[in-house]
Amino acid sequence: MTHTMQAVALTRRGNIDALEPIRLPISEPQAGEVLVRIRAVALNHLDVWVRKGVASPKLPLPHLLGSDIAGEVAAMGPGVEGLSEGTKVMLNPGVSCGHCERCLSGHDNLCRHYQILGEHRWGGYAQYISIPRTNVLPMPEGLDFVEAASVPLSALTAYQMVFDRAQLKPWETVLILAAASGVSVNLIQLCKLVGAKVIAVASTPEKQALALKLGADHVIGSHEDQAQAVKALTAGEGADVVFDHTGADNWQRSLKSLKWGGRLVTCGATSGHEAVTPLNWVFFKQLSILGSTMGSKADLHKIQKFVQEGKLRPVVGHVLDFAQAREAHGLLESRQALGKVVLRVP
């Protein structure tokens, strides 16, 4: 193995030109760590936010983006057990201290020292990464590297939103915005596993068709009167739960789409972080607004079983070569992607 690796680094904050190919030293795995030869890395909107300086603006540069990683075990540090070189693996993007009360109670994504690969520490825009053993899982059988890289962050996010934050019930109706996005394609499938009725919002016929294929019961065009369309499909009641990661542009529409006593679960704000919330809507209709970030390490093991059993499938929209990282960012920002955008790593 050589001592250096190919990487695409964030060299400054700004547009896609801030991503530049460079060579970096390969880090040796320390005690309890695994060195993974990366074969595929999937993109998330988090990559765009970090690149622009919206998220973690004080990170030292150069920085490696990329939260969703699949590859092979290349080497192991002292004390690592249960793996062998060449094992195909996918990585949990959330790294925590492992010894605080929250970590030990299974809520590691609430750890005060929680870090996400590609945001707070170097991620997968490279050929190798050293990662704690607790973040390494065997790839689900039947998936290739591209599909496996499409699973972790978006599926973890969707899992916690559905099962932990919303605590969704089979008799409930949900509204899912941006239905063809990485998180939402998982939300649709998980909500249908629960048995809930799913109304999906999408901007194009192709995205609406994808939502229906994944199990959505109804689709709404993003330019329709969302609240009225939802009420028409729920006998005037509104949705029990709205899952929204689009942010400011749709915030009030999401609140209006809820029934009395409904819950809005948000995990992001792709259109902007500053939204106006009429508080009288919240207290008079007794609405709940619930934030959500990632999921626990244990959740990814449950997701792994869902994927293994064919109950949850990754949706890959675009596969590009590693050198096309800039083009991949352009696809995300233009909202052209159906599902995940993935880079193959040479």
Describe this structure in words.
- With 346 residues, this protein is of the alpha/beta class.
- The chain has two domains: 4-151 and 314-344, Quinone Oxidoreductase, Chain A, domain 1 (Alpha-Beta Complex); 156-291, Alpha-Beta Complex (Quinone Oxidoreductase, Chain A, domain 1), CATH 3.90.180.
- It contains eleven helices and 17 strands.
- The strands form four sheets. Strands 3, 4, 5, 8, 9, 16 and 17 form a seven-stranded mixed sheet that branches. Strands 12-11-10-13-14-15 form a six-stranded parallel sheet, with helices on both faces.
- β1 (4-10) and β2 form a beta hairpin.
- The radius of gyration is 20 Å and the shape is globular.
Topology:
Elements: E1 4-10, E2 19-25, E3 33-42, H1 45-52, E4 68-76, E5 88-91, E6 94-95, H2 101-104, E7 115-116, E8 128-132, E9 136-138, H3 145-149, H4 152-165, E10 173-176, H5 182-194, E11 197-202, H6 205-214, E12 218-221, H7 226-233, E13 239-244, H8 251-256, E14 258-266, H9 279-284, E15 288-291, H10 297-308, E16 316-321, H11 325-333, E17 340-344
Parallel strand pairs: 10-11, 10-13, 11-12, 13-14, 14-15, 16-17
Antiparallel strand pairs: 1-2, 3-4, 3-8, 3-17, 4-5, 5-9, 6-7
Helix pairs in contact: 4-5
Organism: Deinococcus cellulosilyticus (strain DSM 18568 / NBRC 106333 / KACC 11606 / 5516J-15)
Protein name: Alcohol dehydrogenase
GO molecular function, one term: oxidoreductase activity
